[in-house]
Amino acid sequence: MIRLLHAAALALLLSQAPAALAQQVTAPHATGPVRTNAPLPGQQGESIAVQADSDRARAVEAANRSAAEHEHAAAAAADAGGMPQLDFGNPLMISQVVWLFVIFGLLVFLTYQFLLPPVAGVIENRRARIAADLDAARDARAEAEAAEAGRRDSTARARAEAQASVAAAAQAAQAESAARAEALAARLDKQIAEAETRIGSARDAAMGALREVATDATNALVQRLSGLSDGAAVSAAVDRELAARNLKTAG
Amino acid sequence: MAAEGKTIDALSQFELIPVLGPVGRAVGFSQSNAHMLLAVGLISALMLFGIRKRALVPGRFQAAAEMFYEFIENLVTGQVGHEGRKYFPFVFALFMFVLFGNLIGLFPYAFTYTSHIAVTLGLAATVFLVTTIVALVLHGKKFFGYFFPEGAPLWLAPIIVPVEVVSYLSRPVSLSVRLFANMVAGHVLLKVFATFVVLLGGLGAIGPVASLLPLSVNVLLVGFEILVAFLQAYVFAILTCIYLHDAVHLH
After folding, report:
1. B123 at the A interface (CB within 8 A)?
2. Of B14, B30, B97, the CB nearest to A85
3. What is the ipTM of this complex?
4. Where are the transmembrane segments (chain B) (predicted)?
5. Is residue B221 within 8 Å of B82, Cβ to Cβ?
6. Nearest one of A247, A243, A242, A248 to A218, comparing CA atoms
7. What's the CA gap between A37 and A245, in Å, rounded?
8. Pick from B28, B44, B220: which is nearest to A2 by CB?
9. Which of A70, A82, A119 sits opposite B66 (nearest CB)?
């Protein structure tokens, strides 16, 4: 709706523009000095009107000479329904533009010299500060990550060490028990061997006694049966028999 | 002044009146120029006062100053590229001068210098001259190739070249008329509805009630005019940037 209003206002202004231009065209006539006061031929009947016109022109001219010429010209323009902005006969219009260039030039100069450099400095300073802070934060994070990695390393190393020492202890215990078992086995073997030796010697002794007993018994049997007493033959026969039965004699 | 008798006088607000007494009258210093000086003063005050602490964390005024700075900087570097960095203060001065002219004009009893075609045309002519001089300095004779795009068939030159020249020369006209027409339309509308408020207010018993309607329209219009003030300043600045882009890059 507001846009429509704007368009309507513009249309209103545009419809006034020709009037303003027309006023523009007549303005020098109305405000400028009028040199010919005599009525033109063919306008005799209207001489009074022309006279009135030139009177007005003279009055305006007088007004122009007065100090308040600008207001009068502007007021005349406004009374005529034109836009003051298009009243280029107004000397204030020219001076306004001249002053515009002076003042705008001043602003451009101020902007280049004084207004912008401090802002640029502040913004640059902040940018640098933020970058530095970001760098510091990045460094701190890297540091923390390094510390974390170190911690993880040392944990792993400690665990490995513990495992190694456990394994070593287990190995040592195993070795010790094995050694002890070996020693025990060796002692038992020795005892067994000793016992076997004793048994062997006891058997040998028993075997020796067996031969003696067998010889004695054979001698006694032979003597009783045949009355002969051939000790050597009996002994040889006993030996043969014993050998035949694979009985070792204690020799 | 708003309602003389029963007429609506929407245009007398644009009249130029000399200020500063006889001195101002002698040098043609009108209220329009006084408002220009006021704008330059306010711009300088905002930029210098706002930035005086050079705080890392900006306060209210510093944030405003930095906002304007970065807004225009992004506009210039976005449109022209980094080669355009050296024209940034000029565009900044232009934008702030137009913006403050538009905004100051919205205060009661204030004058809107951007509602004068002579002023806007003066600014647009400055932009035109600056862009043309930049193009001539940067590209020399090659600048005239701008009016005939490369690769176009030669027999089209009689058509293309005049069209391009006319479109180039019409830039300051469209640039100035756009700002001028927008500001005039807005202020005429405000004045018309303000006059309605006064006229309807004099209608006896129902007057105060009836005048509420144009009053509320005017409240809406003021909001709209604030938007237009920013928008037109922005349009002026961005078109300047586009012309600068053409001057720096030639298409």
Report:
1. yes
2. B14
3. 0.89
4. 34-51, 87-111, 117-138, 188-213, 219-244
5. no
6. A242
7. 191
8. B220
9. A119
B137: left (phi over 0), alpha (psi -120 to 50) or beta: alpha
Residue-range domain boundaries for chain B: 16-249
Q: Do A123 and B69 touch (CB under 8 A)?
A: yes
Give alpha helix (H) positions in B105-170.
117-139, 157-169
For B191, the enclosing helix (H) or strand (E) is: helix B171-201
Cβ of B29 within 8 Å of Cβ of A119? The answer is no
Q: Does A101 touch chain B (CB under 8 A)?
A: yes
Q: Does pLDDT of B170 surpass 70? A: yes
Mean pLDDT within A127-148 = 95
Distance CA B187, CA B225 (A): 8
Phi, psi of A245 (to 5 degrees): -90, 5
| Cβ atoms of residues B157 and B148 within 8 Å | yes
Interface check for A132 against chain B (CB to CB < 8 A): the answer is no
pLDDT tens, residue by residue, A77-125: 445 557 888 887 788 888 899 999 999 999 999 999 998 888 888 889 9
- Identify which of B14, B16, B88 has the shortest CB distance to residue A70: B16
Its pTM stands at: 0.66
Burial class (CB within 10 angstroms; exposed 0-12, middle 13-18, buried 19+) of A1: exposed
What token pair was written down for A111? 């902007």
Please report, for chain A, the start and end positions of each structural domain, with discontinuous segments joined by +: 2-89
State the nearest Cα–Cα gap between A105 and chain B, in angstroms. 9
Helices and strands of chain B, counted as H and E runs: 9, 0
Length of chain A: 251
Interface with A, mutate which of B8, B9, B15 (most A CBs under 10 A): B15
Q: How many angstroms separate the CA of residue B107 from the nearest CA in chain A? A: 19
* Distance to chain A for B250, nearest Cα, Å: 25
Please tell me if residue A213 touches chain B, with a CB cutoff of 8 Å: no
B222 and chain A in contact, CB less than 8 A: no
| CA-closest candidate to residue A79, choices A32, A27, A11, A14 | A27
Query: Which amino acid is residue B79, in one-letter code?
Result: Q
* CA–CA dist A78, A1 (Å, integer): 29
* Contact indicator for B219, B55 with CB cutoff of 8 Å: no
